[in-house]
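note to self: dont lose this again. the chain is below, predicted strucutre after it. 754 aa total, dont forget to put it in the shared folder this time
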Amino acid sequence: MKAAIKYCLYGTVILLNICTISLVADCGSIDPQPHESLFGLTTRIGTEVDFVSSRLCLVESVVDLIDVDVSGVDSSVSLLGTLLCSKIENLDGELSVHDVLVRSQLDVIETDVNMVDTDLSIHDNLICSKLIVIDSKIDALDLAINTSLSTDEILSAIEQVDTDLSIHDVSICSKIEHVDEELTIIDSKVDLVCSKVQVVEANLEVLTASSLDAIADTMRELASISDELMDTMTLIASYSDLVVGELSSLDGMLMAVADQVSVLDVDLSIHDVNICSKIENLDSDLSIHDELVRSQLDVIETDVNTVDTDLSIHDQLICSKLDIIDSKVDSVAECCPCDFFITQTDIPYTITQPGVYCLAENVTFNTGNAITITTSYVTLDLQRHVIDGQDSGTSCITIDSADDVSVYDGLVKNITFGCLITASHKVKIRNVNIDNCSLNGLQIGQASSDIMIEDCAAYNCSSSGFSISITSNCTLRNCIANNTGVGFTTNPLSFNITFLNCQAQEDNTGFNISSDDNLLSDCLAAGNSADGFQLNSQANKTIVRSCNAQNNTGYGFNVSSSSNTEMRGCSSVGNSSSGFSSSGAEQIIMRECDALYNTQSGFDIVSTNSCEIRDCSSVSNITVGFRIVASASSSNITLDNCHAQSNGSHGFLFDGSLSVLFGVQLINCLTEGNGGDGVNVDTVSKMQIVTSRALFNVGTGFIVASSSGIGFFNNLANENTAGNYSGIPSFALASAIDVLNSGFYWVNIMGSTI
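---
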């Protein structure tokens, strides 16, 4: 392209020079020739004038060609700059400068050419006017000739015409010379443009053939991509037509489906009515079955109570028979002579041989142990005598590493330990009373097992009445601890400990249990300055049956962080704290338990998981009847067939405002005459209140706040002073089924209005 532009410009300049030279060369040959007539001269002058005009037209065309070529150069240079700007950014500024210079030079050339064109047009007009004058003079000559002018006149006229033509010829030649000068200037400017083009060409030659090939490859790739895009657009257009067709068909199908949905909606409405009627029938059937099941459960409960009564009778019979057997054994022992007698002079005395040993008199001592048994198969009969340690001895009776040992019928007092059993097995202590111990009345430990403590009492012991440590299979029956630090205590390394009909009165804590697999039956904790019954964190798998806690300063029953605890048939009356308390415990069962006249709550269940409270009552407690609170996460709490009456505050309180409380059930419960709300639910999730009644409470019957997922089924609230319902949607109080609103699920067949 560069060579074509250069050659085009060079050719235009050469053509312009040739035209100029030809025009100059042909001028000045208009003089009359010998034997040439005036008409021939005039014809030749006209021919010359035509020739000059044609040459001027040629000059104008050449000038136009130059203008076109210059414009072509300008557009070509701009095109080259556009194509190469992305690859030669470093040359962009220079090319822009050269482009501006070329444009300015071309504008100058175009201006000069326009001036030449204007001058030539003016000259052409002048020539034409001169020719008109010449024609008029020739016409005058012809007229003169026709009028027979003289030869002199004709010659003078011809000379005049020749003079005018000479003057005109000189003028034309001067004009042509002026044009030649202008063309020379144009030629120099064209040379300048060519030099600028050569500079541009030199700059463009810097670009390598690989760059131009890369540009060409890029252009080809762009062309290929463009073709692919066109093909893709064509394919998309065809797909669009296909999609439009498919959408049209789908629109028709949707219309058909909408019609079918309308039909199904009608069918579902009919089915919904049928299902609702069936659900009502099922509800009626379930109610009937529920009554049947309850009646059967009542029968079973009656049978269980009968069996329990029979077992109690049998237990009493067995106990009476055991008493008879014991009396007979005692009689036999009394009948049988003693193998050895122990007197004051024998104290301290150590039994190292099997046999029957009898204490012959009251004895005293003030150091060590009074009687120590270190061998097996020993019976020690105290024969109702007294062993007095005089406040300085260690132990009245010590059994150390001995098996099959029996001690009975005596009193030990004023001692550190009344009786001390260590590492022994199959030991029985009966009818031994202990009084005034600085530590423990009776202490069992050091891996002892199969221990029976029966009909014993510990009074006025500073630490504990009965202490069981590292012991298994130990039973305490009909024992009393009075005015001791702890009445009965077990440690975490003991298991399978049984307390039957034992009493802890006026102690600090009545029963402090930390062992596993415990049974407490028919026990009493009364008037203690702390808790009546305390089950600690290691007290797992414990059964508390028919036990009573009365007038204790702390809790009646306190279950703390233990698991698998069952309380059945227990009562807690007049305690200064709550009647029954569970804190941080798991898998707790309370059945047929009663809490009355306690200073705080009847039942206080805090941060407990998997707790079941059935057939329990809380009456006339100072604060809440049943208080379920989550200070840490609590879940799976069930209260079934429970009764809260005449408590100072709410009948039932469920409070999850401090932590998560969820999975709660209140079933078949009655709350009446309480000083607060019947049932107060605060910040609880996933709770069911089923077939429960709230009557004659000072507060609201049922109140729910900040809770979600609450099921409310077949409940009744009536004659509550502050209102029957609060926080319960009004639609939940009608006989509606499957009503869902804001996280609440309410169905209350027996409901009244708020």
